[in-house]
Structure formats: C-alpha cells, structure tokens
Description:
Elements: E1 22-29, E2 35-42, E3 47-55, E4 59-65, E5 70-77, E6 80-86, E7 91-96, E8 105-108, H1 111-139, H2 142-173, H3 179-185, E9 187-189, E10 192-193, H4 201-214, H5 219-246, E11 255-257, E12 263-265, E13 273-279, H6 284-300, E14 305-311, H7 316-326, E15 331-334, H8 342-346, E16 354-358, E17 364-367, H9 371-382
Parallel strand pairs: 1-7, 13-14, 14-15
Antiparallel strand pairs: 1-4, 2-3, 2-5, 5-6, 7-8, 9-10, 11-12, 13-16, 16-17
Amino acid sequence: MNKFIPIVLLAAAFTGCSSEEKVTIRGSFDEDMEGVIYLDQSDVNTNKVIDSAEIKGGHFRFKAELSGPEFFQVRLGKDDFVGLLAMPGEEITLTFGASPLVMNYEVEGSPGSLKIKELDQRLFITITRLDSLKNIYSSLSEEELVARGKELETAYLAIVEAQRKQNINFILNNITSMASVKAVYQRLDENAYVLYQPRDLQFLKIVSDSLSVKYPESRHVIALRENVTSEINQMYINRLATIAAQSPVTGNDPRLPDTDGKIIALSSLRGKYVLVSFWATTSEECIAEIAALKSIYSLYRNKGLEIYQISLDASEERWKSMVQFEEIPWISVREPDPQNPVYTRAMGIQAVPANLLYDPEGNIINTNLFGRNLQIRMDQIFNK
C-alpha cells in the first residue's frame, strides 16, 4: 500500500452560485479567543489555503462554494486542525475546546464531518500510542533492547494492525460515504499508509466502485478510480515479474519462430519500446485490433517502437495466411505448441487479446492498453 500514490483534485471556485452550492462553517471556542483561523481545501496529500478569518470574541465564520462533496480543514496552526467533509447547502457548526483541536471539538450540521471526526480521532490516538513506543524504544540501552526490544516491536505491530482493522470496518460500514475515501488513504506517517498490505487494494476497489455509482462526477471519485486502475496495473506487473522469475523458462525473453521459421528473441529488441501483443486469428477482437496497431506502428516505428506479436493459433497455416493477407509489418511469431504455450504462460497471459509494453531496458511498464488508451500512452512516450 505504501506505493499508493493518491491524486485527488481540488475543487474549482465558481461565482454566482446559489445557496445550495455553498457551505457555511461557523465556529466558536469555549474561551474568548482572538487571532486568525484558516480554511484549507484538502486532497489526500496536500492542503491549500482558500480563506482565513479573524476570531472575534471566540467566534468565526467561513463560506465556501462547492458543487459536490469536498474535504476541508479548519486550522489554527500547522498541526492543529480538524477535518470536514462538506456537502452543498450544509451549515456546519463547530465548537472547540483546548488543543489539540482534533480531540476537543463538536460538529453539527454535517453527517460526513462526523464520520471524518471518528476517523481522525482514532488515528490521532493510534499515532500517539506509536510515538510513545518509539520514544521508549529509542531510550533503551543495548542491554535493555535485548531484553525488551522484541516485546516493544510486537506491541507496535499490534497497534498498527488494530488501526488497519478499524479502517477496514469503517469502509465496510460506510461504503457509500465519501468519508471512505479518507479511510483508504489515511497514513501513520509520511511513508506508511494504514492500509498497507497488498490485499488491501481490494478496499480501494470497493470504495471506488461504490462511489462511482453515487458520485460519478466527483473529482475525488474520478481520481480514486484512476488510482485504483493504476495500482491494479502495477500489481499485475509485479505478479508477472514474480511468475517470470519463478518459471523454468525465461518468461521475459521468448524465443519464437516467425513465418519463415527464423527464431527471434524478444531480448534482441532491447533499446526500443516493444509492445508484446498476444493474439489468435480466431478472435474477432484480435482481428479488429490489427487496424489500430497498424496506425500506431506507422506513426512510431521510426521513433523507436517495435511490435512483437505472439500467435496462439492452433493452425500454423491459418496464422501464416492471416499475416500475409493483412500485410502485417511488425514481427509476428507463434507458440509452436498452442496447447502448451510455454512462454505465454510464463508471462502470465491467460486470454487474448492481451499485451505488455516494455521500455528500452526490458522492464514492463504497462499492460493491456488498447485503442485510444494505447494511442495516448504512445503520445506520452514519443511526443514529449
């Protein structure tokens, strides 16, 4: 999970909005307090100041324009703030006690913000407990570490796992709430997500699928959906690398015969971007993809692209005839025994059409890009 690289866009500010497209945030402190308080608009990783207000007689007020669910922070100092999940038309009331604000406040008028409060307070308690263990650990002598180190490490991991399970339970119980976006991206520190195990990716997928139905136009949901696609793609790439490494056949270097019987190794194409395409002439989808590949190949062949297309046709003659009929200009090879496609299996391919995109160093950088998505990726690579 620590590779999750979340990208949630900030909401745009519009003029001339109705009251139903605004949120009002009123706040007060238990004690008469003076100073400045800030309103940040938040994504998962960054916060942008969008307003500030004078605290007069312990009171303040913000108004913000929004067209859908948005995340905010109401902040006194850099690390003293509370999070909000606001909906258009809400009038949110905050009552603050002493610092830290996150543990000493009440919120009314915003069901989503109550859920954020639950998440933030649990995480604050967990981080406080972890920090306490870190301080104890760092204060021990070498002899004390021998005696207590294992015990402290076990306690630390137990706290981390308890927080992870709390976030999973929250997601499953609030699957249609935008607050679940925060639950999947919470961090214990800059480098450690609460949901850190590879299998936790399923919870990003669950939240993405659910919120895509309820809030299909939300920038936060669109960004989450893109993030999930990227992470699943990376997980697939990692799995392919593992399969290839464990296979008795070098999965990332097939050596197969072309239509003339000449053996061509994928590794002979190092130094180029190579699209390894898996197909069969009996697949209508594969045949339909030929025209798009021809267009891409003609545009980028001279810029450093090669296509290494592996046929899984049972009939060698049918494959050769189709290559000739379609006047396929790239490298076309075939698994000699399609019933036991050794290289194809070693590369983790289970169905056609499928493809893997290799960089000039021989690393897989994308999988299963077709049509417009493949064209966009080629543009990114060759038209920088």
